[in-house]
Amino acid sequence: MIRVNLAPLVHAELGLRELVTLNLSNLTFEDLTLNYLKGSLHFTRVAQGILCEGHLNAEVQVECIRCLTLFSQPIVIELEDIVGLPGADLTPERPVRVTEDYWVDLAPLIYEYAWLEIPHNAVCSPHCKGICPDCGGNLNLGECVCEEGAALDPRWDALKTLLK
Ligand SMILES: [Zn+2]
Ligand SMILES: [Zn+2]
């Protein structure tokens, strides 16, 4: 839950703005973990509801596609969306609204926008050696116990000859 009180804006005239500063740590969503989330959001009363916009800095835990270990990567979440007024219909395009007592939980929005920034081909380091295809050991940690060369499938011998 990322709860923000929007009471001053719900009944305000159009154009009124509020600045809200977030500084959170350890946010865990179903399949996404943010080590921290910080920054400021502007909330502006507009005709359709309350416009929420701003940049948030976060650090996300991602899995290296080569060695499959989790590592942290900083991301910038660029948010720009409408928060519905109390009683407004929730739709996939507008998944959050202010409750009858003027709170909004921004978590679904943050989650959605954070997803857009997650690197999907993340590599823990340009020098990552990955895992051994035979024993599954992490080559960065020297976990491979295969004898050098022993891992080569004999069927590759023909190819090796070709390469020579
Ligand atoms: Zn890696
Ligand atoms: Zn190995």
What this model shows, in words?
It is built from three helices and six strands, in the order βαβββββαα. The chain has 164 residues and is mainly β. It has two domains: 3-117, no CATH class; 129-164, no CATH class. The strands form two sheets. It has a four-stranded antiparallel beta sheet. A two-stranded antiparallel sheet has the order 1-6. A hairpin with a 2-residue loop joins β3 (32-46) and β4 (49-63). The radius of gyration is 24 Å and the shape is elongated. The mean pLDDT is 90. One zinc ion binds at residues 132, 134-135, 137, 144, 146, 151. The site of one zinc ion has 7 residues, from loops.
Briefly, what is this?
Helices cover 13% and strands 38% of the residues. It is mostly beta strands.
As residue ranges, the low-confidence spans are: none
Strand arrangement in the largest pleated sheet: 2-3-4-5
Distance between the termini: 61 Å
Share of residues in strands: 35-45%
Mean pLDDT, to the nearest integer, reads: 90
Gross morphology: elongated
Q: Please tell me the total number of domains.
A: 2
Number of helices: 3
Task: State the oligomer.
Answer: single chain
Helix content: 10-25%
Q: Quick one: how many beta strands?
A: 6
Q: What can be said about the biggest beta sheet?
A: 4 strands, antiparallel
Order of helices and strands: EHEEEEEHH
- Compounds present? zinc ion
User: In angstroms, what is the radius of gyration?
Assistant: 24 Å
Structural class: mainly beta
